[in-house]
Amino acid sequence: MPGSTRPENPAATRRPVLGLRQNLAQFMLLVAVNALVGGTLGQERTVLPLLATEAFHLDLYTGALTYILAFGLSKAAMNYFAGTLSDKYGRKPVLVAGWLAALPVPAMLILAPSWGWIVTANVLLGISQGLTWSTAVIMKMDLVGPRQRGLAMGFNEAAGYLGVAATALATGYLATTYGLRPAPFLLGAAYIALGLGLTVLAVRETHHHAFAEASGTPAAPGAAGAGLSTGQVFTLTSFRDRSLSAASQAGLVNNLNDGLAWGLFPVLFAGAGLGVGQIGIIAAAYPAVWGAAQLVTGAASDRWGRKWFIAAGMLVQAAALAMVAAGSTFEAWLGAAVVLGIGTAMVYPTLLASIGDVAHPAWRARAVGIYRLWRDAGFAAGALLAGLIADLYGIPVAVAAVAGITAVSGIVVAVRMRGGDHRPAAALP
């Protein structure tokens, strides 16, 4: 079309081969890139909640959690735009733009003279995470095709959250040894430089793989076909389609409780007398179990279906949060972190795969972006809700309230989501 900026459809001249084995080198490169994306986020998990109270003397939980609110809102918005922009301009330029947005973040965290700098840095970090993580998801879906979508999402999310876990543990050590600033954030700066370099020099465009899949893929039963506007995709993903909307609300609640864990758990543990090193171990255990277990749960959902993995995973998360609310020792909280990681691993890659199952390849990138908009709005909702309840009634009550919300979300998935949406993809010739 004259004047269009949409990437040309190369499928008309050559048909890319879909599949994990056929695209293994690029797939594993994208796994490594997403590990660096996760590490960029992990630089904050242990240190920032302590920085809020010790360096900036923020007493109210709602004030301390403003950085998560800022991060969640900006990341949610960029998730939406990542899908739309990657359809219009291609995947790689969006991935590069995400890394560029992260460049100032470590310096701002190191030099921040006031809490407003921290909040602004997290707006930029949210923009970066929305563009980079969403695009890495979309590119892996492009490469592998329909047969191994759960496995691909398991690898993607495992890499990202193992990156979060390893960095949370490392920054806890660095903060204990060298102080809260600057050492922990220098690690984040190294991740950003490496991720940008790999993306520019080695990552290849994958949009043509999506074109190839779209040319021979009907819509899954119960979903719509290829010719949808962005507004129609938003409505379908958010409300109208039973499976897509059930996944979107579950994603929101999942990250609501992750925002709680990120912002309030370190404060709860510090208030009980745990040292920075112990807090770092718990902060790392949750995403480490979450990350590693996704290598199993993503692939298992390819075989046994998405619905019951998601519903059961939300209930396991609810039980883990109840354990945190009732706990008072390092051992109890470490056990709860492990259970929370298992529950989240059951949900996280499976939700993404369920979106890919139902969404047609022609609008799948937009559906992924919209799902991730809702999911990462949970960070903001969790920071606001948990902070307000914690200010009024204390952190254990806030954790218990979020546990109840998480359990209700699992029941919604059990009632609303269709049970066989992964089957059409598995049955393709």
Outline of this structure?
With 429 residues, the protein is mainly alpha-helical. It contains 18 helices and no strands. The relative contact order is 0.16.
List the helices and strands and how they pair.
Blueprint: H1 24-45, H2 47-54, H3 61-64, H4 66-89, H5 91-102, H6 105-111, H7 115-144, H8 149-178, H9 183-202, H10 207-215, H11 230-240, H12 242-271, H13 276-304, H14 307-326, H15 330-358, H16 364-393, H17 395-416, H18 423-426
Tell me, rounded to a whole number, the average pLDDT.
87
How many independent structural domains? 1
Radius of gyration from the alpha-carbon trace, in angstroms = 20 Å
Percentage of residues in helical conformation: over 70%
User: What is the CATH fold-level name?
Assistant: Growth Hormone, Chain: A
Q: Which series of helices and strands comes N to C?
A: HHHHHHHHHHHHHHHHHH
**Spans of 5+ residues with little confidence (pLDDT < 50)?**
1-6, 8-13, 423-429
CATH architectural label: Up-down Bundle
Kindly report the name of the CATH homologous superfamily: MFS general substrate transporter like domains
Structural class: mainly alpha
Overall geometry comes to: globular
The level-1 CATH class: Mainly Alpha
